[in-house]
Specification:
The structure holds 2 protein chains of 2 kinds. Chain A is built from 12 helices and no strands. Chain A is mainly α. Chain A has one domain: MetI-like fold (Orthogonal Bundle). In chain A, helix 9 packs antiparallel against helix 12. Chain A starts with 6 loop residues before the first helix and ends in a 14-residue tail after the last helix. By secondary structure, chain B is of the alpha+beta class. Chain B folds into 2 domains: about 220 residues, P-loop containing nucleotide triphosphate hydrolases (Rossmann fold, 3-Layer(aba) Sandwich), CATH 3.40.50; about 120 residues, OB fold (Dihydrolipoamide Acetyltransferase, E2P). A 6-stranded mixed sheet of chain B has the order 6-7-8-3-9-10, with helices on both faces. In chain B, strands 16-20-17-18-19 form a 5-stranded antiparallel sheet. Chain B has a 4-stranded antiparallel sheet with strand order 2-1-4-5, with no helix packed on it. Chain B is globular and about 70 Å long. Classes of the chains: A mainly alpha, B alpha+beta. Chains A and B meet through helix 8 and helix 9 of A and strand 6 of B.
């Protein structure tokens, strides 16, 4: 009976491992190795890395202040806006991509931007845009809860010590919240790296131009080059695993770093 | 001088209070009396009507950060991610002096509070008493125009609190800091305050020197546990030489002459000395009684001693009580310290 409680955990772990093993054993190591060295995979990896990093930076620039406002300010229709910001998390990425495509296509905003010489659709910039759309809500969410967990009385203490609001934010609030924000950032990065549906719609799937690693995997499966597809998949899995592990380790050593130091909300 | 005039908000009613330059004013009252709210008014952390002025200049329109105050909160609020020294340096940002000078100043103030060796430590690595000292140092290092202290010693053990009170008083005098100190403990107020203001239900009930407040019988109504013993005398004779002889519970007592025709005498519970054996010394102001109850609370032992028909309340530290080796029902010898007796009129 006592062993029974372990059963679901074992089943789920086995399921994940079996899927991974199936991916691994379906092709010969030689094929994978060859594909890893191919210029197409290398290009896709580089593009994925650059676009996802750009998307994460954009998400931070927009998401951290947005999370702060949601945590600290009251305003009309806050719940509605909060929910809207969460929507990309549950939206089918393909649908999000179509929306972005329409918005930035020829007719609407895209036409105006094209006049300024900025083309987003079917360019790597489009991939950045799509990934930001999907990843930013994760940063907003984690920033918001990180800021909410900082005792506001520290900010009051900062005021009595003569500190201005920007100084209080940079020297007190942000350092006390950074671990939560960092966790969210890593998760957002992992999400942006694996983003497929929206990127496919907005940036398109042109080899050596807009094909990020997930899109390249898709292209290779479509054309029957399974070795190359699975090589790409393994790179994505490895990066995802490392990032998720980083989040876990960060949570173990860090997220409660200020517990018992007055870092949590006092009554 | 710091002036608060006709201060009111939802917790406070028509408060008028002056704090003189370099004075430590103790604000006492039961919890819920509005003491912390009044501190927050002075700090600008809460809304109010009326006016607050610092040295003749109204500050009502100034935000907390421009009021040049130092505030030690009850929960201290040391920044957990900064070292002791960084906590102090951050509070000196508003000063127009160079970084080396700020470091020097932080060092000097930490030295004055005897915690200079802790300057690289983080708050969670410090004991409660050490954290308290860091909070005090952080609040005073920028030389505030007004120092606000909200029950800073409430969570410390008896001995640490007493030590830190003396330390605070010393630094407050040395730096000439105008200070408003909130406590619910009258003994603490007496030890620290130059003057005392008593609050109750959002109103300022009384203000005055320690003695003026202490021996007011209205304190009974305010509901403090700690109040003086009031002994009714059956006769009083002025002996000259600044002494009055009174009769109480079949004993002769000598009381300092304050120019009042004495009918009662007052003495604080911690100014009465008791022992199991008869103590050495001159046979003045002695009594013999019996311990009727012992009550330990909040780091203090309260002993009730019946003398004749009267009961004296005596207070001491737990250590002192242990050394005394007396128990309920036991006979004790006592001394009412001459200097501590105060003659009261009708």
């Amino acid at each position: 009976m006592r062993l029974l409680i372990w059963l679901p955990l074992v089943v789920l772990t086995l399921l994940v491992c079996s899927v991974l093993a199936a991916l691994l054993f379906h092709v010969s190591p030689g094929d994978v190795w060859q594909a890893l060295g191919s210029s197409e995979t290398r290009f896709a990896l580089r593009l994925s890395f650059v676009t996802s990093l750009a998307a994460v930076v954009l998400s931070l620039i927009l998401g951290v202040p947005a999370g702060y406002v949601l945590a600290r300010r009251r305003f009309p229709a806050k719940a509605v806006i909060d929910t809207l910001l969460d929507l990309p998390l549950v939206m089918t990425p393909l649908v999000a991509g179509i929306g972005i495509l329409f918005l930035f296509g020829r007719d609407w905003l895209g036409g105006y931007l094209a006049g300024l010489g900025l083309r987003l659709v079917f360019t790597p910039l489009g991939a950045v845009l799509a990934q930001t759309f999907i990843a930013a809500p994760i940063v907003v969410r984690s920033s918001r809860s990180a800021f909410e967990s900082v005792n506001r009385r520290f900010e009051l203490a900062g005021q009595t010590l003569g500190l201005s609001a920007p100084v209080i934010f940079v020297r007190i609030t942000l350092p006390l919240a950074w671990q939560g924000i960092l966790t969210g950032t890593i998760l957002a990065w992992a999400r942006a790296l694996g983003e497929f549906g929206a990127t496919l719609m907005v940036a398109g799937a042109t080899r050596f131009k807009t094909a990020t690693l997930p899109v390249s995997v898709y292209l290779n499966i479509s054309s029957g080059e399974l070795g190359a597809a699975i090589a790409g998949a393994w790179i994505l899995l490895a990066m995802g695993f490392v990032l998720l592990l980083a989040v876990k380790l960060l949570g173990r050593t860090g997220s409660n770093a200020f517990a018992g130091r007055g870092g949590t909300v006092l009554p | 001088m710091i002036s608060l005039r006709t201060i009111a908000n939802s917790f406070l009613h028509d408060i008028n209070l002056d704090i003189h330059d370099g004075e430590l004013l103790a604000l006492v009252g039961p919890s819920g009396a509005g003491k912390t709210t009044l501190l927050n008014v002075a700090a600008g952390l809460t809304g109010y009507t009326g006016s607050v002025s610092f040295y003749g200049r109204p500050v009502d329109r100034l935000p907390p950060r421009s009021r040049e105050i130092g505030y030690v909160f009850q929960d201290l609020l040391l920044f957990p991610h900064l070292s002791v020294e960084q906590n102090l340096l951050l509070s000196m940002r508003r000063l127009d002096i160079g970084h080396p000078e700020k470091k020097e100043r932080a060092y000097r103030i930490l030295e004055a509070f005897r915690i200079a060796d802790l300057r690289t430590r983080f708050p969670h690595e410090l004991s409660g008493g050490e954290q308290q000292r860091v909070a005090l140092a952080r609040a005073v290092v920028a030389r505030p125009k007004l120092l606000l202290l909200d029950e800073p010693f409430a969570n410390l053990d008896f001995r640490t609190a007493r030590y830190l009170r003396q330390e605070l008083k010393k630094q407050q005098r040395r730096l000439g800091l105008t200070t408003l100190f909130v406590t619910h403990n009258l003994a603490e107020a007496r030890e620290l305050g130059d003057r005392i203001a008593v609050m109750k239900q959002g109103r300022l009930e009384q203000k005055g020197t320690i003695e003026e407040i202490w021996f007011q019988q209205e304190l009974d109504e305010i509901g403090f546990l700690e109040k003086p013993n009031i002994l009714t005398c059956n006769y009083a004779v002025n002996l000259g030489n600044g002494l009055v002889e009174v009769g109480w519970a079949g004993t002769r007592l000598l009381v300092p002459d304050d120019g009042v025709s004495v009918e009662r005498v007052a003495i604080l519970p911690d100014e009465i000395y008791i022992s199991a054996e008869k103590a050495m010394g001159p046979p003045i102001n002695r009594f013999v009684g019996r311990v009727s109850s012992v009550n330990r609370s909040d780091g203090i032992v309260q002993v009730a001693v019946s003398v004749g028909e009267d009961t004296l309340r005596v207070e001491m530290s737990p250590e002192h009580f242990l050394a005394l080796n007396v128990a309920e029902g036991q006979k004790v010898h006592g001394i009412l310290k001459l200097r501590a007796l105060k003659g009261l009129g009708a």
